[in-house]
Design brief:
Helix content is about 30%, strand content about 25%. The chain is α+β, with helices and mostly antiparallel strands. The protein has a single domain (about 5-315), classed as Spore Coat Polysaccharide Biosynthesis Protein SpsA, Chain A, CATH 3.90.550.10. A seven-stranded mixed beta sheet has the order 6-5-2-12-16-13-19, sandwiched between helices. Strands 1-14-15 form a three-stranded antiparallel beta sheet, with no helix packed on it.
Length: about 350
């Protein structure tokens, strides 16, 4: 094992820990309306930006490469869809908006060249930033470090690495210099998500939250979504893989749509979030990844609140080629909302 790889493994083994769990109770009520007028003022003032979590791969959609390349329509990629949303928001509020993309390192140049080829879909290149997500060693089906041709295999280590990766990159400094105070976070595989949602941003700022999140009512106890609960009187999220330990049925599901203060991001980047061992399957072969979850940071927030949106307004997950979260179903949801 090379020196760099050994350091990564040692660091991972040292930081693989579980935080102390406090009493978990149901979250029974959240607000259903934000403050869009306040949000519009923030957007026009240039104090808000967006980060698109785009390190996911399109394997389960039957394609190679980053998920952002996937054609949500025959000639429109997910990247184009989100960039057009930003362009539309700029025209609506007569302002310049900034967006950053968190990418898997091996696709960084490819994505940059793709955006450049398409003239950043009408956005000013100076307002589009890219940064790489950190990676960690993978394990094979026997839970041993995964080597191929003598090389330790690495993989993106979950959306929880956003804080550290973002702050270490030049993008965080660029945001600071630009006077940005609030950052919305959204995943590439939810094409109904709005990069600049004035209702969420207004709610976040008016309530002086460090963390604001969008939830939806839980429809099915078996659906694979994390849930909102209260932990030590503060909103917390439990991933669906751990729900068997709950003694109650949660009311709200997590959409992974957030708004963070820049100060919160900086503070969490200096913390050590726990790693989760996640089982994956590719070409009928089992392997394991260590991932950090973005919401494991919420215990560090001084003030956190949630909104509840109608599901059809904000949530259309694109996970697989077919099925409930498949391509056909997602396109239908987008058409029903007039997005496509």
């Amino acid at each position: 094992m090379g020196t760099v790889a050994k350091k990564q493994v040692d660091r991972l083994e040292n930081f693989l820990f579980l935080k102390e769990k406090k009493a978990i109770t149901p979250l029974l009520k959240v607000k259903t309306k934000g403050n869009p007028k306040w949000g519009e003022k923030i957007l026009k003032s240039g104090k808000a930006a967006a980060v698109l979590l785009a390190a996911g791969q399109a394997m389960r959609l039957g394609c190679e490469g980053p998920k952002g390349f996937f054609p949500i329509l025959e000639k429109k990629s997910l990247f184009q869809l989100f960039f057009e949303k930003v362009f539309k928001a700029q025209k609506q509020w007569n302002c310049c908006l900034t967006i950053a993309l968190m990418l898997e390192p091996k696709y960084y140049e490819e994505v940059h060249n793709f955006l450049k080829k398409h003239d950043f879909f009408g956005l000013n290149p100076q307002n589009v930033h890219l940064f790489s997500q950190s990676v960690y060693p993978m394990m094979n089906g026997r839970k041993q470090w995964f080597f191929q041709k003598g090389k330790l295999q690495l993989s993106p280590d979950g959306n929880g690495s956003f804080y550290e990766s973002f702050v270490k990159s030049k993008v965080y400094t660029a945001f600071e210099k630009q006077g940005i105070e609030h950052v919305t976070i959204l995943p590439i595989d939810n094409p109904l998500a709005e990069p600049f949602d004035p209702e969420l941003i207004g709610f976040h700022c008016k309530e002086k939250n460090e963390v604001s999140l969008i939830s939806i009512l839980r429809e099915d106890p078996q659906e694979k979504m994390g849930v909102l609960v209260k932990e030590a009187s503060k909103i917390s999220i439990i991933e669906y893989l751990d729900l068997q330990n709950l003694h109650f049925q949660p009311k709200f599901s997590n959409t992974n749509l957030f708004c963070f203060s820049m100060k919160f991001i900086k503070r969490v980047s200096q913390k050590k979030l726990k790693y989760h061992l996640i089982k994956k399957k590719k070409d009928q072969k089992i392997f394991y990844k260590y991932e950090r979850f973005i919401f494991d940071s919420f215990s560090f927030a001084n003030r956190i609140q949630a909104l509840c949106y109608p599901r059809e307004k904000c949530y259309a997950p694109l996970k697989t080629k077919r099925g409930k979260c498949g391509v056909k179903e997602t396109r239908e949801k987008l058409l029903n909302r007039g997005v496509l």
